[in-house]
Task: structure prediction
Amino acid sequence: MRYWLMKSEPNTFSIDDLQQRPAQTEPWDGVRNYQARNMLRDEMKPGDGALFYHSNCDAPGVVGIARIVREGYPDPTAFEPEHKHFDPKSRPEQPTWYMVDVQFVKKLARTISLRELKQYPELAELALLRRGNRLSVMPVTEAQWQFILGLEGDGAGVSGASDA
DNA sequence: GCCAACGTTGGC
DNA sequence: GCCAACGTTGGC
Result:
């Protein structure tokens, strides 16, 4: 079992949207980056965990947990000429772009903000925090996963960590 | 709205 | 293959 972090803009698709979906499941379509594609197609497996991250919003940070429930398969939105994510290079007989299905697991008791994540030496190697990393899907180590989720109950940790 | 950091495109 | 131009991402 592996762990991942998946970004989504809450204006487009939020953790609440995922929770409200039928079966609380959603195809993670629209990824158009080869590095991310390789992870979606080759590495992500049912049962893997994913941190749900809200990006490009007022309060960027980790807001919940999801689970991979279907391994990589061709992203059909790439085949639809009318679709925003249409890509003529991707043909059904030889797809360029892949997606996985994710399922809602839980919403965190609080948002663990990007600002907070940056404070911990334990997360120095987190791909999300590495300079210039704009991947929408990225791996998380088990240690990072445990550490981040361990922050959830630490309600005072937000200000406490910065006061130290 | 600004801007840094990328990835992609296309001329040569 | 090089590299400038351009578009996108995403924090602030």
Notes: Residues 157-164 of chain A have pLDDT under 50 and may be disordered. Residues 3-152 of chain A form a domain with the ph1033 like fold fold (CATH 3.10.590.10). The longest strand of chain A covers residues 98-113.
